[in-house]
Amino acid sequence: SKLNAAYAYGNAKELAKVLKKYYNIPINAYVLINMGGLKTIVNKVGGVDIAPILSFSYEGYTFTKGKTTHMDGAKALAYSRMRYDDPEGDYGRQKRQRQVLSALLKKAESATTLLNSSFISSLSKQVQTDFTFSDMTSMAKRYLAATKDLKTDYTHGTSYMQDGVSYQKVSVSERQRISNLIRKTLGLKTKTVSTDSIDTSTSSSSSSSSTTTDSDTTGGAGN
Question: What is this structure's pTM?
Answer without folding.
Answer: 0.72
